[in-house]
Amino acid sequence: MALSGLMRVMEKAARKAGGRLRRDFGEIEHLQVSRKGPADFVSKADQHAERTLWDELRAARPGWGFLMEEGGEIAGEEGKPRFIIDPLDGTSNFLHGIPHFAISIAVQEPRLDGKGWGEITAALVYQPVTDESFWAEKARGAWLQDRRLRVSSRRHLDESLIATGIPFAGRGDSAEWTRIYGALAPQVAGIRRFGAASLDLAWVAAGRFDGFWESALAPWDTAAGCLLVREAGGFVSDWRGVSQPVCDAQVLAANDSLHSKLHKALVGGLKS
After folding, report:
1. Sheet strands side by side (includes 141-144)
2. What digits encode the pLDDT tens for the residues 179-215?
3. Cα–Cα distance between 259 and 173 in angstroms, integer?
4. Which residues of 70-81 are buried (b: 16+ CB within 10 A; e: fewer)?
5. Tell me: the pLDDT tens digits for 115-145?
6. How far apart are CA 37 and CA 172, in angstroms?
7. How far is CA 225 from CA 74, 91, 124, 129, 222, in A?
8. Which SS3 state, helix, strand or coil, does residue 223 take?
9. What is the structure's pLDDT at 29?
C-alpha cells in the first residue's frame, strides 16, 4: 500500500525524531534528566524529539493544531485537523536502557458541528530501535511498513496473551487494576506489561498481543493505537463497552470475539 501525502509527512517527521532518539539512547548515561513528577521523568531527548516533530509537521501542514505531551494544546485554524503527539512513549524504559519505546502521531478531525474533536483518521507508531513503522488511515487498513496487519484470530481466553499497564507511584487506580487482574489472569495464557501503551496497541493490531487493557492514560498514549487496532479489524472501547474516537481514560482492545469475553470478565472483576 502506497503512503498518502499525509502519511509520508508523518513518517518523515517520526524518522527524523527517531534518529535523534536512537543516538540519545546510545548515550543514555549522559542524558540530562529532570523530575516532572512522581516516577514521571522527562529527558532532553523527549524535548528534542517533540520539537523536531513540531517543526516538521507544522512546516508541512501549516494551520493545523497540536496536542502534545510536553507542549500541551496549541490551537490551529478553525476547521483544520490537529496532530496528537507523544514524542517518547516509554520514557522510563528509555531512561533505564530498555529498548522498548515509540513515537506516536495521530490526526484528529474537528467535529462537523464545530463542538470539539471527532474521529482519528491517520495514525503512526514508530519504534526507533527496531525501525518498525506501524501506520493506519481510516478505511485504508493498518500496516507494518508495506505488510497488511490483522488482529489475532484467537477466540479462546486460555490461548490468549494480554497486555496491560500497571499503576505506579500514585498514577492509576491500583484497587481497580487488581480486581481486573484477578478476574482475567486465571482465564488467559499470560499477561504482559512492557511499558509503552502505543506499542501495546500496535502489537494488538499486529496480532502479537491478543488484547490490551489499561486506564488513566492520556490521548497521546492511545490516539494512534486506537485507529491501528480498528483498521486491523479489532475493537476498542471503554469499560462500559462504548467505542470513543480516542479511548484513554479506559481502554479495552481485542478482536471481536475476545473483546466481548474480556469485557465480560473485566466487568465481573469490577463488581467483585
Report:
1. 72-74, 65-68, 82-89, 102-110, 117-127, 132-137, 141-144, 147-148
2. 999 999 999 999 999 999 999 999 999 999 999 999 9
3. 22
4. beeeeebeeeeb
5. 899 999 999 999 999 999 999 999 999 999 9
6. 14
7. 22, 17, 8, 18, 5
8. helix
9. 67
